[in-house]
DNA sequence: TGTCTTTGACCGACT
DNA sequence: AAGTCGGTCAAAGAC
């Protein structure tokens, strides 16, 4: 990969960036575009693997919060990069971020009770399931 | 300068 | 027991 622009953070996303404030856009080497919808949490990518068994690329994300053990796996078919499947593991122990309307000191207090509302599996299987 | 992404390597589990 | 695959860590590079 030399001629292709590095698909790294901060890359110019044109006007699309305005609409994708919460999403991560990845333009891969083969010109396939993968849009990873954000869920209001700060995720750090710590690995990516090609799963041969299912012929999919899987990215591994971890929640930014040190005490938060929530993980997120985003996988997409090599032939259908737009067909994302997001899997969550664990639960967040903090409120969502990136939601200005909800940002506030009182939110942290509510986080404890909101944890139960983070039915992450419901998010995954109820919204992002594509199979 | 600091943060984040990318990629390769390593380790453990499973077949 | 050996090989393969999946998951995680760590270093380097880019913005």
Automatic annotation (TrEMBL):
One of its GO terms (cellular component) is nucleus. Residues 74-113 are annotated as: Disordered. Residues 76-88 have a biased composition (Polar residues). Coiled coil: none annotated. It is found in: Nucleus. Keywords: DNA-binding, Nucleus, Transcription, Transcription regulation. The keyword Lipid metabolism does not apply. One of its GO terms (molecular function) is sequence-specific DNA binding. Residues 32-97 form the WRKY domain. Its main location: nucleus. PROSITE patterns: WRKY (PS50811). Residues 102-113 have a biased composition (Low complexity). InterPro entries: WRKY_dom, WRKY_dom_sf, WRKY_plant. This is WRKY domain-containing protein. The lineage of its organism: Eukaryota, Viridiplantae, Streptophyta, Embryophyta, Tracheophyta.
């Amino acid at each position: 990969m030399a001629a292709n622009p590095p698909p790294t953070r901060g890359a110019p996303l044109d006007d699309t960036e305005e609409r994708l404030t919460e999403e991560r856009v990845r333009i891969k080497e083969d010109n396939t575009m993968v849009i990873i919808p954000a869920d209001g949490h700060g995720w750090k990518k710590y690995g990516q693997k090609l799963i041969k068994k299912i012929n999919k690329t899987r990215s591994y994300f971890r929640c930014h919060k040190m005490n938060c053990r929530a993980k997120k796996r985003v996988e997409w078919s090599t032939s259908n990069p737009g067909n994302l499947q997001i899997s969550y593991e664990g639960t967040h122990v903090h409120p969502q971020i990136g939601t200005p309307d909800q940002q506030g000191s009182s939110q942290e207090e509510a986080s404890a009770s909101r944890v139960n509302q983070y039915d992450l599996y419901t998010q995954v299987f109820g919204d992002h399931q594509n199979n």
